[in-house]
Design a protein that fits this description.
Its EC number is 1.1.1.49. The protein is built from 14 helices and 17 strands. By secondary structure, the chain is of the alpha/beta class. The radius of gyration is 24 Å and the shape is globular. Bound molecules: 6-O-phosphono-beta-D-glucopyranose.
Length: 489
């Protein structure tokens, strides 16, 4: 993995789905930052491709509005925007029509000495036709890379079909399956924490760890993405990718090298060791919920089924909690509790490693909590270690205190923290796939998720309601309480 690369090669970036949410909210602001900080190859060109016919100036006005909203005031200047906008072109085309790719090739006048990045910020059903059309148009040569957004498919079968079709056009080293969580600084820090410190690794196993919690809770609802989300739900949108990737980084063995193949080999082994959840286990080990009306930050918000483009009798889950077990030597008997929900009480993504209590209690009454490591990914990037200390004063009374590291403050000299997409876009241009999901990883994740989805269909129950602004359905609390545990946030 590279740090601050200098690029020898020029680059053309094609964004399919160029007027969609992802392109406007994430990709263009990330590219703007890269441009402003001179981290893009000097003559990089960006082509936004979308169905609507509109003049370039209209597209640029739309893009500028979104960039202004996403980029902090200090970082947005008109001069930078104008020089960035000079790199952008817009082409109206239908990605399913091969004839339109001829027009694209004409417009692009791509030279084979340039890196060509095809970023598919579209629905997965367009991945295969786009790849095939790129091949027909001669835009899939050795210099070309394809970037696929998650979720890749809808099930193992559909993911395999996509992987197969993409593999017929692009060899695996040129396929970049994005999970933007892997691009987050704090997520990469997890690897630094584990593999660059001697302190934790000896304790990182079933002999010392009681259980692990991985939560990604959001206060947002589905915003403008109801049409997509209502067909996906939290299991496909979040658990199949972001949460399982976090689980892999927490649970994997130390890779032989810090390169794409070694890291991904270890993650794959964890996905393969996940105990399948099917039959009765689906009832006992998973909870699916859906938000009803409630309050977020003092504001009333509607129930999920009143969101735009959502079926008014929808039974899509907006919350999932799962107990996952990893059947290998290191983690035997250590549950990993995964939880994600929209419209929750507070936004927070965090990993908690709950250590076991001391084997013999010498001090105190034996009821004090054991050590706990919190790795907070967002909104603040912090790592805290809960230790037991003696309370000041007479006697030996124990209290839990925290060793607290705020990563943003620790690195404040290093200016702005990069957004995940900045990092990942640079890696694509450089051809570094360490932070991207390999084909077998994606398929192994679906292999674990599919039986849960099937179990939900088989023993049908509507998702458990939870009021917006709460901590999810009660059943999610019971999932831990039955084992004498509790969620820590
Ligand atoms: C996306 C999901 O992948 O991640 C969204 O599709 C979710 O539904 C988002 O809101 C969360 O990302 P972040 O970076 O805001 O935690």
């Amino acid at each position: 993995m590279s740090n601050s690369p200098a690029f020898p090669r020029s680059c053309d970036i094609l964004v399919f789905g160029g007027s969609g949410d992802l392109a406007l909210h994430k990709l263009l602001p990330a590219l703007y930052h890269l441009h402003r900080e001179q981290r893009l190859p000097a003559d990089t060109r960006i082509f936004a491709l979308a169905r609507s016919t509109r003049a370039l100036d209209d597209y640029l006005a739309l893009a500028e509005r979104h960039c202004r909203a996403q980029v902090s005031r200090d970082d947005f200047t008109l001069a930078d925007w104008q020089s960035f906008a000079a790199r952008i072109d817009y082409l109206a085309m239908d990605a399913a029509q091969s004839a339109d790719f001829g027009r694209l090739r004409e417009r692009l006048k791509h030279s084979e000495t340039r890196v060509l990045v095809h970023y598919l910020a579209t629905a997965p059903n367009l991945f295969t036709p786009i790849a095939q059309n790129l091949k027909l148009a001669g835009l899939a040569g050795p210099e070309a890379r394809i970037v696929l957004e998650k979720p890749l498919g809808h099930s193992l079968e559909s993911a395999r079909a996509i992987n197969l079709a993409i593999g017929q056009v692009f060899d695996e080293s040129r396929v970049f399956r994005i999970d933007h969580y892997l691009g987050k600084e704090t997520v990469q820090n997890l690897m630094a924490l584990r593999f660059a410190n001697t302190l934790f690794e000896p304790l990182w196993r079933s002999a010392y760890v009681d259980h692990v919690q991985i939560s990604v809770n959001e206060t947002l609802g589905v915003e403008n993405r109801g049409a997509y989300y209502d067909h996906a739900g939290a299991m496909r949108d979040m658990v199949q990718n972001h949460l399982l990737q976090l689980l892999c980084l927490v649970a994997m063995e130390v890779p032989v090298h810090f390169d794409a193949e070694s890291v991904r080999n270890e993650k794959l082994k964890i996905l393969q060791a996940l105990r399948p959840i099917g039959g009765q286990d689906v009832q006992d080990k998973t909870v699916r919920g859906q938000y009803s009306a409630g309050h977020i930050g003092g504001q009333e918000v509607p129930a999920y089924w009143f969101e735009k483009q959502v079926d008014n009798d929808s039974d899509t889950e907006t919350f999932v909690a799962v107990r996952a077990d990893i059947d290998n030597w290191r983690w035997a008997g250590v549950p990993f509790y995964l939880r994600t929900g929209k419209r929750m009480a507070k936004k927070c993504s965090e990993i908690v490693i709950q250590f076991k209590p001391v084997p013999h209690n010498l001090i105190g009454d034996g009821s004090g909590p054991a050590n706990r490591l919190w790795i907070r990914l967002q909104p603040e990037e912090r790592i805290s270690l809960q230790l037991m200390a003696k309370m000041p004063g007479k006697g030996m009374q124990l209290e839990a205190v925290e060793l607290d590291l705020n990563l943003a403050q620790a690195f404040s000299k290093n200016k702005r923290r990069w957004d995940a997409y900045e990092r990942l876009l640079l890696d694509v241009i450089e051809g570094d796939s360490t932070l991207f999901m390999r084909r077998d990883e994606v398929e192994a994740a679906w292999r674990w998720v599919d039986p849960i989805l099937a179990g939900w269909r088989e023993h049908y129950q509507r998702p458990r309601p939870y009021p917006a602004g709460s901590n999810g359905p009660e059943q999610a609390q019971s999932l831990l309480e039955l084992a004498g545990r509790e969620w820590y946030s």
